[in-house]
Design brief:
Blueprint (H helix, E strand, L loop, with lengths): L1 E2 L1 H7 E9 L3 E8 L4 E11 L10 H8 L8 E7 L2 E7 L3 E2 H6 L7 H20 L2 E2 L8 E4 L2 E4 L6 E2 L18 H4 L8 H16 L9 H12 L14 H7 L9 H4 L5 H10 L10 H5 L30 E5 L13 E5 L6 E8 L2 E8 L9 E5 L15 E5 L7
Parallel strand pairs: 1-5
Antiparallel strand pairs: 2-3, 3-4, 4-6, 5-6, 7-9, 8-11, 9-10, 12-13, 14-15, 16-17
Helix pairs in contact: 4-6, 6-10
Length: 405
């Protein structure tokens, strides 16, 4: 919706300034008509004709991108040659939450934030845009609900370089941008997502460079040397050569730098923060990473020979769940559960005999409380006297659907 100056003056009351960015200042305001709090972005550039603002990439992106994890543009107002964007109001940004945090985030909290970031990026990239300035300050949060904001540097995926050299805050800038590549892709957003994921564990930037060269140095000291053949023609690789000519650099053990992160988290960070943009997973691929599909941490497995049939009601000791987190039909897929099951007392044996082939199928009602959906194929069949062996290994397949909480 677009409005003129009279509407803005009569409807919105500025309460306080929230921040001053590259493209404009952001204010907290009161919408007198709806009695709700909104955020107002006043652009620094002057607009002398009403048609001028329609060419803004930020406005084009915001109008096209409609997603729960992307900030919503409510209205556009022009007053005295100044342009105002009216947004939904969010309580704070992710940087402020990390800054004020007294203790580390749990991995579940980190999964919650990052899954929302990636869902927003997935929608953005799928609809032809990449952000180019992804950082904690541009991730707005209210009651743990996250939205990507500030599309002032957004570009169309189909746009042709060369792009502007300054893109994103230095600490979250992808190597190809630091090396002045003539063109780059939405993979720059995926690099930033990996850096943010690492920062959620440490509560401090993982690559806090003081300059572009220092930024590259810090990346090299963690990731090691890249394959120089991955960079397209026109990339300023001399910046890297000057670093490696002074010293021999080996990759660091990221688990030592982020000791609180699980192996799944470390693996996802390393994939997202790959030197090679083409090897970074997309947002959709990242959401399928095991880091987002960990339901529980299994207890250490004991020697199977120590397991006894008398362990009534024993639960699986190892389980891998692949689940769906989207409610839309096209996002759904079949859940698969693999379990190593100790001997369980409440088993029912069904014998199938077909053309001389015998198969024993065992059903257990104690797994996941889905007796009708859990089926076991024993890997060690009972002997001819129907005596169960001391240890019974089995493969469990559970089929179920899941809805987003």
């Amino acid at each position: 919706m677009e409005s003129d100056a009279a509407v803005f003056i009569s409807r919105y009351k500025i309460l306080k300034e929230l921040g001053d960015g590259t493209c404009g200042c952001v204010y907290k305001a009161w919408d007198k008509l709806t009695d709700e709090i909104v955020a107002v972005k006043k652009l620094k550039r002057k607009f002398y004709f009403w048609q001028e603002h329609t060419k803004l990439r930020e406005l084009k992106a915001l109008r096209k991108l409609n997603h729960p994890n992307i900030i919503k543009l409510k209205e556009v107002v022009r007053e005295n040659n100044e342009l105002f964007f009216i947004f939904e109001y969010m309580d704070c940004n992710l940087y402020e939450i990390m800054r004020d945090r007294q203790s580390p985030f749990s991995e579940e909290e980190i999964r919650n934030f990052m899954s929302q970031v990636l869902q927003g990026l997935s929608h953005m990239h799928r609809n032809g845009y990449f952000h180019r300035d992804l950082k904690p300050e541009n991730l707005l949060v209210t009651n743990n609900f996250l939205k990507i904001a500030d599309f002032g540097l957004a570009r169309e995926v189909s746009s042709v370089g060369p792009y502007t050299e300054y893109v994103s805050t230095r600490w979250y800038r992808a190597p190809e941008v630091l090396l002045q590549s003539p063109s780059y892709t939405p993979a720059v957003d995926m690099w930033a997502a990996g850096v943010i994921l690492a920062e959620l564990f440490t509560l401090s930037p993982i690559f806090p460079g003081k300059s572009e060269m220092d930024q590259l140095c810090k990346i090299c000291h963690i990731l090691g040397a890249p394959d120089f053949t991955i960079f397209p023609e026109g990339t300023n690789t001399s910046r890297l050569l000057s670093i490696f000519s002074c010293e021999e650099i080996s990759p660091a053990n990221l688990s030592d730098i982020i000791p609180s992160a699980s192996s799944e988290a470390i693996d996802l960070i390393l994939q997202l923060c790959s030197w090679n943009p083409s090897r970074r997973p997309s947002a959709d691929e990242s959401l399928q990473h095991p880091f987002f599909h960990v339901d529980w941490v299994p207890h250490p497995l004991r020697d199977p020979l120590e397991l006894k049939l008398s362990n009534a009601g024993a639960k699986p000791k190892l389980e891998l769940n692949l689940q769906d987190f989207g409610p839309e039909p096209e996002d759904c897929f079949l859940g698969l559960t693999l379990a190593v099951k100790p001997s369980v007392s409440n088993l029912e044996v069904v014998h199938n005999v077909s053309q001389g082939f015998r198969e024993d199928i065992l059903f257990c009602s104690g797994l996941n409380d889905h007796s009708e959906r859990s089926v076991f194929w024993p890997l060690i069949s009972p002997d001819r006297n129907r005596i169960q062996p001391r240890v019974e290994s089995s493969l469990s397949l559970s089929f179920s659907s899941f809805q987003r909480p």
